[in-house]
Amino acid sequence: MEEWVGELWHKYITRKASTSFADAKVNFSQVSKSIGMVYRALGGEDIKRVEAATPRDYLVRRTILQKISGENKQISLAWQDEDSLRLPESLAVFPSTELNYDLYIWLAVLAANHHGKFQHWANDNQRLVVKVLKKYPAMKPRYQRLAQATVDIRPVFGKLPDNEQAMEKSIIEAILSPGSVSHFPIVNFAPQAVHLWLYPSAHVDPQLLPEYQEIDDLAQGKEKTKPLAKSAASRKKAERIDSPENRDGMMIFRLESMFSWSEFSKLDRGTDDTEEEDEQYQSVAEDLDQISLSQQQNQKSASIKIDLDLPSASEDDFPIGDGISLPEWHYKKQQLEADRCLLQPMLPKGAMPQKLPIKLQKSAKIIQSQFEQMRNLRYWLKGQAQGEELDLNAWLDFHVEKQISATQEKGLYQSFRGNNRDISTLLLADLSMSTDAYLDNENRVIDVVKDSMMLFAEALNSVGDNFAMYGFSSVKRSHVRFSLLKNFNETYNDDIRGRVQAIRPGFYTRMGAAIRQATQVIHEQQNSQKLLLILTDGKPNDIDYYEGRFGIEDTRQAVKEAIKLGIKPFCITIDVEAQDYLPYLFGSDGFTVILKPSQLPLRLPQLYHQLTSH
Questions:
Q1: pLDDT digits over 134-144, tens only?
Q2: In the chain, what are the domains?
Q3: Where do the record's region annotations for Disordered lie (predicted)?
């Protein structure tokens, strides 16, 4: 009975204290695609994620009802940093759904035109609004509607102290006439949130691992932590704190109170005592408003280092040579840093000559017959000075131009030629540990990759195209594994088939280094057309600083380097989330997503046919 009454009271008091319009609420998930398109179309950075932001602490004057109910302690605001644009999880600011939707769009436009950091929040926002309205005059009616609606819901002057009244008056004038206010009084409480403006980024300290810092105790000897599942809530506010200074731990027992998860106590607990289920970590993280993290400083001499990432030399693939030094792109410095990666060419262990598997033989014959038709394909070479027939289109263009002005006669003939496929293709396959995942009860991703590579090789071998095949994975920048399956000088035979069938899931996906090496290999070929196919099941990542934007930017730079050398990169992926990052890496027409991975073995040769046919 008490719980029932308490629940009714909580609902009542929360509803009375709330200033939002629940019936007109618009959720971020409903408009995220539209916002993303608007943001990027108007100049926002392509690489930035557009995502929801959890509420943050906001010291504003609250009513008695809000204090009783706990409302209005945190507010969801719009802000951005170098990684993402973060907008409120939902907007119920205005009594109209249309206005709340318009507010999302306005914030996206505002963010697309804001670069750098805020010096003075109110003055900078005024200048930004003036800039946007001048640049996009069509936005003025929308802004005027939002500005008036914002003023209508702000607190009444008479209920505020004198100094806060002056602040509120300045804010309203700045909203209605942006750029007209230069002085804002100092007050003890923050003014009611101005949802029309952007806010400074929430204080998030740098990543736990500084850029390029190699910490063996964290990066090696441990399996990569399983990522927590995405919840409805978005990113949390974070802070970085110092690790406990005391050398020895102590046990604390307090009867008078209990620790909450949001408290931080300097307790040195044994590493073995901290193992808990991932589900418990996730539920706790979702309940926290702010997550505090520290780096534990363990003495290396007091621990035994066990490397679980790399297999022993007797069980590993066979290395070829001492490795190849490669550069890597530092996106913050906007420059290539030489000799940042060491790429190790390798041959698959246990590779023995093998025939094409029986299950693939029927499909291989069908694909081979389709590709063999390309050998006999003949076509008209147009716009020639001599030829078997008159090129009617060229003659018509010449006739029209001649009527306008004196025009010199040019190629007016067409010649019938045989098909000359002057092309080199390199297939680069992602062999990261994620390929060990099962697609169904029988097949893993790596099994589909093997089948795809073999059918691809059978098809290209039948048409006589010059091709090579490699695989890659990585364990940090000092160990990028580059598996040799077939180079351009080798003849496709049972030895190659055996290598492909011997490949195994590897480690992580340092894609930039692999693409650079593949680019060098294919660049040495003398063919006029060069195609680099990248087969992957996820985005670039590694267990060091390469995770996140570093990996994305380095891969994008490697792709640009390949294009500059006249090579055409094309990505084939089975990652359902690839639309979020592949357009930035390869361009809108530089990739394709295979929604049913089981279809990849047949789709890969078809895609090659489409990319290389005249």
A1: 999 999 999 99
A2: 2-176 (no CATH), 203-221+236-241+251-295 (no CATH), 318-373+421-612 (3.40.50.410), 378-418 (no CATH)
A3: 221-244
